[in-house]
What does this fold into?
Amino acid sequence: MRSIHILRTGLRTGLLGTALAVIAVATPLVSLTGDRVLNDKDIKKLSNELASWFEALDARKGKLDAEEGVREELEKLNKKKGKQLKAGNLLAQPEDLGAVIYMANRYDKKFPKRGAGKVVSKTADGGRGTVEYAVWSPQKYKPKSGPYPLLLTIPDEGENPEKHIMNRWNDGTLRETMLIASPKMPGDSKKWTENDGLAAVLLTLREVSNIYAIDFDRVYIGGRGRGGETALKIANMFPSRWAGAFAWGSDAGEGIPPENMRHIPILICGGGSKSTAFADAAKEAGIESVKLDSGGGQTEIMAWMNDVKRTKYPEEITLIPGERFPTGAYWLQIQPVPDPTGVRLDVSANRESNTITINSKGITEATIYLSDEIVDLDKPVTVIANGVEKVQQFERSFRLVLQLLESGKVDPGRVFVAADTFHIPSAGESDDGAGESDG
It folds into this structure.
């Protein structure tokens, strides 16, 4: 059963079209901790209805009936537990809503029967082809013992992924506590950030995330040598998905705008002049999350990962598009830009004033996704796009949540319940139509 559906970015090129559908994996959110209000028993019926909806998607039939079942059970839960919930609505409680999604994924039914405590070679089917990868799971792996951090590590050029895990990641503590996955990359390392290379990395992430109970707020991408350089470039392309990115024995960072990775801690071990230039550019942009360690290795990377966790709802986002990626970050999305030269988008949210500010150069339209972690959705939100102001009341929508689950834009650690697309006026443009949404 494939429970959580996957991100579709609009690009459809062979395997990459499927690989870019990176799973919005359910993260085990520990019951009765953090900001949760309800316990697992309270939300069990709703999670069962959501599981049925996932099954209807996979079967490609019964989707509307299953959606109605989710709606009815959500209404019952809000009526029963409304006094405990903000605005009397589960959609206003991101942590509880995330727990519903996690429980619906039913990781216990996907328990791998074999392979715990060893490196196993597997194949991921992308629909239009397959990719190979290796994965390590702890000897005592059990879904209920999670969540487990995931280390997605790209081997060096010519290095076998199974041997990469066995030889490079052999610390006992690491192996007892983390899942480790490594994709088999295409032969030409210069093309590792093109279609086949991206497919290898993202399909590996999708498959491991779908089978194992990972902690989606602690997914690290990195690699050795050429793999480390590739890891940083892929982190730049899809910044919302990673807790951190590292390069080991790599002179990484060339050609990457550090602003896109403002909220991704970066560790570069054994880098040279290119890494130094990247770190200097980050400091000039006011980014202090890039760390260089000339002699670092497995021990230093482990210590770094222990202190790093995903930023889910940053207050400030900078997006500098590339020729294809990135086209989004966190709660911001744009369409692909034919010529990204000089294009930049800066977006910020102020929950205290319930204001979102968009400053754009070269972008005329942007979609924002919201939850009550970003703004107070019970109140009107002021959206200021290149100086043009619009006040709007956003509505929480369970149908939108389902749409975003199906498209892979949310995961249990980070949910959105409202969205709209805004016109961004250029300098001197009147406010006629500014802030107009697509409904």
